Amino acid sequence: MQQTDVARAKAPLLAVRDVSVVFGGIVALNGVSFDMHRGQILGLIGPNGAGKTTLFNCLSRLYQPSKGDILMEGDSILARPAHRIAEIGIGRTFQNVALFPNLSVLDNARVGTHSRTRSNFITDSIRPPWVGRAEAATTKRVDDILGYLDLREVAHVPVAGLPFGTQKRVELARALAAEPKILLLDEPAGGLNHEEVYGLGDLIRKIRDDRGITVLLVEHHMGLVMSIADHVVALNFGRKLAEGTPAQVQSDPDVIKAYLGSKDA
Ligand SMILES: Nc1ncnc2c1ncn2[C@@H]1O[C@H](COP(=O)(O)OP(=O)(O)OP(=O)(O)O)[C@@H](O)[C@H]1O
């Protein structure tokens, strides 16, 4: 292994370095830094307006930081547009579910494989043998994921008519189909009932355990974060307030004060 490869292997999977975001006069993020290590479930918490969504949007490349850097396996991702983050192993889901409503569960999940295919319109017209083999492998991979997420029964059903909780699983299927190293989950518990939230918690943990995928979870549901996260980063007014194990962060006086003074308490 070359020295650069060794350094890369030792680097955190994702490093947020002194990131600031300013909207007009509003400082939404102010010098936030933290590391995410391989196989970790990291919960990002904070009261309303703390800067969680802004940070999530920087990680998924929808926002450009005014200052600082974000490194994936040691390389900056800031020059990369949002539609090319899947190629380096960053997958995401959306707060309000962003699927193609008229397409089937299977076709929505297949969309996720796009970043992993080498074919283009020329190879699709000539169809050398490897295109057929690659398509068969993709079909098998998507079918495995649908089975894994208990979606095989509805594989050919348009997603529009499915319950919200099922649509959220389809989003997960699409994200997993891209074979991410890290999965960014934007308030996955939103709109789910109590039972579904705990089912989701088990599923997130299972995805990490079975597939070794690192997870960043932005979430208001404190019970979910505290029960599944290995590491928690708390933001308030755009700054990092505390980080550590769920127990450490939960008992941090600054975190308690921030939540008591907010509507999230
Ligand atoms: N596009 C924008 N333009 C201007 N100000 C913004 C924009 N997005 C966020 N802000 C401001 O930045 C700050 C951080 O907002 P952000 O949405 O990141 O917080 P949050 O922690 O995700 O809050 P919530 O839990 O309510 O979603 C807030 O003061 C917000 O009003």
From TrEMBL:
GO cellular component term of the entry, any: plasma membrane
A GO molecular function held by the record: ATP hydrolysis activity
Keyword entries, A-Z: ATP-binding, Nucleotide-binding, Transport
Residue ranges occupied by any ABC transporter domain in the UniProt entry: 14-262
The UniProt record lists the keyword Repeat: no
PROSITE patterns, per database record: ABC_TRANSPORTER_2 (PS50893)
The protein's name in its UniProt record: Amino acid/amide ABC transporter ATP-binding protein 1 (HAAT family)
Organism, as annotated: Rhodopseudomonas faecalis
General function of this protein: Involved in beta-(1-->2)glucan export. Transmembrane domains (TMD) form a pore in the inner membrane and the ATP-binding domain (NBD) is responsible for energy generation.
Source species, domain of life: Bacteria
Signal peptide from the UniProt entry: none
